[in-house]
Amino acid sequence: MSEQLPQLVSNWLFNVIQPLYDNKQIVYTHVYQFLQLHLKKNLNFKIRTRVYTSSGSGQSSLLINLFGTIAISHEVSVPVEIWVPIAYPYVDAAGNGTPLVYIVPDHSKNWFLRPSNNVDTQGMFYHPYMSSWYKECTHTNPGSLNKYNLVELLNVVYQSVSTNCPIVTEQPVIANVPPKPAKISLNSHSQTPPLRLQPETSGPPLPAKPPKVQSPPQNTTPLKYQSPLPLPDERGNTQRPFAYPEERMSSPLHPIGYNNAPAQPQYQPQYQPPQNPPVQAPKQYEQPQAKVVPPIDLMDNENNGALRQFSTEASPRSLANNINKCLVEDEINQENLDDHINYLSTQLANLTNLNRDLSQLDERNDQDHSHVAINATTSIALDDLIIPDLPLTKQLYEITLEIKAIKDTMNLITGNFHNQQELVNDDRFDACVKMVRNMGRDLFWLELTKDEISKKIMKLT
């Protein structure tokens, strides 16, 4: 016989099911039986409520979530989560009602999901038992509840994961995509020249390859259109006067091999000779750049000199103004500090006087046991402070207690006392009626006596 659930758990389960689920009694019974077997024992499952978002409709709802781990070995366990849908256990028109089971691996323990026939890549669990549940468990077939419930579902899941464990300790290796065919290594370093030749398809393509360092493809176009297309080493040189580019560009224009497309044997001997002139040419063009920098430095020096002169003239005035401001602020702060010191001194003197007066009153009260001194000149007799307990007061207190006890007993019988169950049933209905009648008679006389004492005798309102 399974043990009863703790009262807190059963109350929590009842309060959760009432506003959410359609078949409240069935859901409560099935979940209660499930927790009797597996709550912190056997398979060590727990219960909670979480928001579930449907992958099909995208709707979110608050559902009961049963979660736990099924131990397979000392190293591997299978974390299982069971979601109880709103329409549980019957399948509604939308196809909802069958419990949803997920395998949720714990990556912190190096557990990874291995898809199988019963578990997909998202961790959702499939089984013929759940398919039969979807087809057979309907409102027209209430006898199917003996076969389709949470306890039987967990048994099916346990058998499935024990036979074919969906958890592995090593992450599955994903097959790599076949690499693209490798290109020829000899042409790998010459991939950029074809890109530079694309906008210059109007010129001869073959002569453009040899002078890749000198940017010879620019020679196929007029001189005025060559400035936007130089190599990075030549971009700074295009900003110089036109005399410099004319001398440099004249050397590549001399060879006639660019116009003679058939003269292909000339490309190999031309690779090295044209490389030396362009290397030396940038060095000659960088020299004028050094001449432009000094004027900028001279401008900076002039500005710096003006700033120094202005600072030397303005520094005495600014220092004097700052000193005056500091003096004014210091005077104000000094006044504030003096005020605070005076205030604290006054408070300290008052506290000292009060402590002295309290010490004197304590000594007087210790010596005189019939009076209480409240200051240096006034004292009150103890008889005036203490009121004796009258017999009527005690009687009124006891009557009030009896009235409260009778009312609580009547509420307990009718089920209105601290959410306790109603004691009245068919077997003891007559006894309860007789008891309530007697208590009502006693309550009437007690209330009458209470009013007589409090209002007429003691003059209480």
UniProtKB/TrEMBL annotation:
Signal peptide positions on this chain: none
Question: What is any one GO biological process for this UniProt entry?
Answer: protein transport
Spans of biased composition, class Polar residues?
215-224
Keyword hit for Coiled coil: yes
Query: What are the residue boundaries of the UEV domain, all occurrences included?
Result: 8-172
**Amino acid composition bias (Low complexity), ranges on this chain:** 258-270
Q: Which GO terms describe its cellular component?
A: ESCRT I complex
Is the keyword Coiled coil in the record?
yes
The segments labelled Disordered in the record are 184-287
Q: Which Pfam families match?
A: UEV, Vps23_core
Q: Which family does it belong to?
A: Belongs to the ubiquitin-conjugating enzyme family. UEV subfamily.
Q: Which PANTHER family match?
A: TUMOR SUPPRESSOR PROTEIN 101 (PTHR23306:SF3), TUMOR SUSCEPTIBILITY GENE 101 PROTEIN-RELATED (PTHR23306)
Q: What is this protein called?
A: Suppressor protein STP22 of temperature-sensitive alpha-factor receptor and arginine permease
Annotated source species: Candida viswanathii
